[in-house]
Predict the 3D structure of the following.
Amino acid sequence: MSRRLTVGAGQMGPIARDESKSEVVDRLMAMLHEAHDQGVDLLVYPELAMTTFFPRWFVEDPAEFDHYYHREMPDSDTKALFDEASRLGIGFALGYAEIETDDEGVDHRYNTYILMDGEGEMVAKFRKVHIPGHAQYEPWRKFQHAERHYFEPGPDGFGAWRAFGGVVGMAICNDRRWPETYRVLGLQGAELILIGYNTPLHYAPDPTQNALSGFHNHLVMQAGAYQNGAYVVGVAKGGIEEEVDSLAQSVIIAPSGQIIAQAVTTADEVISATIDLDFCDTYKKTLFNFDYYRMPEHYGLVTERTGAIPPS
Ligand code: ING
């Protein structure tokens, strides 16, 4: 018996600052139809797929950027996309900026993924946990990366859900660089991990890393896939967006750590692969048989300690 599924990565090229949400939805719709032509069952769009990566600019009051956020999903801007996906029987993950108002009337801003199944039902929402960049304006930077000004960390951590015949988890951008992300999902039996990213090729705190941005991108996702016996779909919004050159190189990675599909452009591009979720056990039941081999009694520091403390 095999649990086959055709997954797609809906990589996006740049979204201009003044590109309307309906223009973006037209692009997402075109990729949905391309995915349908490729027989895709689940299409993964990037992080913040509805707008330009607005944290590259600093505005004192985040509310000035409220037009980049969504209070409901789907809403009037996106309903057509959700309806068409449901008509075609294609599930999808969509990254967007979310505002949620709590019971006390306080607005909370998250960097969010919504996962829909092929019947148009919401499987889950995930809110980015590892918020990179900075919270204050930093004039020394060529461009800002002020995600800590615009987003709170997701309060719910990393969940996994039964969907598409397997166990699916999500992560967003900087989450993919932290091994804990994959292990927390792996400990929930995740077989397919969906990750969107917006990654400038210039890393202001240490530009010596710039030449390695593509290597580091694949390194962390391939390692996460292999060490947890899961497929990983990594989807970029790339290309030169408002003068910031951003990494593309979207991939679909097998539990072996092998890249089985990769985008070759820095534009809107759908890549896909037919995977067998049963293949995960080739690793989960051998080398990475967690229950048999892990030694959590020696891992305490991983959750007890935040920063490193070297021996005195
Ligand atoms: N982007 C980043 C990421 O981890 C970053 C942070 C920015 C890394 C620039 C390297 C260079 O890919 C997001 N959006 O988390």
Remarks:
- Residues 132, 145, 173-174, 177, 197-200, 203 surround D-[(amino)carbonyl]phenylalanine (CB under 6 Å).
- The first helix runs from residue 21 to 37.
- Residues 265 and 309 are 43 Å apart (CA to CA).
- The longest strand covers residues 91-101.
